[in-house]
Here is the input.
Amino acid sequence: MSATTIFAGGEVRKLTLKPRTMKPGDPRCCQGVCGVGDGPKIIARQDWPKDGVDMSNEVTEILDQDGLSLCHSFAGTQANEIAHRLQGYKGVPLSAGNLAGQVTGYQDEGAGVDQVLAVLKAVGQVPRSIIAQDDYQGRDWPQSWQAQAMKFRVAAAWDCGHDTVFDAIVSCLIYGWPVELGTNAFGGGHAVVATTFYQVRGVWYLAGPNSWGTTYTDWDKPGFWTFPERQISVGLSNFGAFGIQASVVDPDDVPA
Here is the structure.
């Protein structure tokens, strides 16, 4: 893994996403590869909605990783929040610091998207009301945090695999699953969330929230990115992409 520095959103940004560590379909991270076995079926392009799919209204807040090398966990947090909102859990912001601390062992460093999803499936993450957004070093983590994190786990993380990965991402969005993905489209390895796909003059685009605050804008919404298929596909196989579903628990047992 090597760090790449770019200028985006009026600020210098460091891209440090690690390549994936698990082969597609590894049961430690996913329930089947898209289109294979227990994974969701890839939808043929001729059956894609002509107007695409847009879940961006489920994004209630644009996150900002600031100068941290934790895009993997900020994107994972955004994806997990969206997945839980789609299950009906509105207004429960989750702690990117809690997720990052679990993924990196309390270090400010890059990680793979597959590592993030493995943690979200096995442990989950807590709301910000329990652990602060920037507390990735475990300074003020209460002893009972694991029990609360289990309420915000990912139920299934479907690995979009190496082949036809863009089609698998779009299929997940059609099914209503946000996708965390890693790509070189930003000029270096960076993790983001895809909530939207749309078509312009025969070219398909992906879009979603970034983790660089609202000063970064590449779409018609502050804080959102967008890239055409050709550009976003660069590095997808290397870094991985996962469509996720949230676990379902008793809403009355969810912390405020």
Remarks:
- The CA atoms of residues 92 and 128 lie 8 Å apart.
- The mean pLDDT is 89.
- The domain at 4-45+68-192+234-253 is CATH 3.90.70 (Cathepsin B; Chain A).
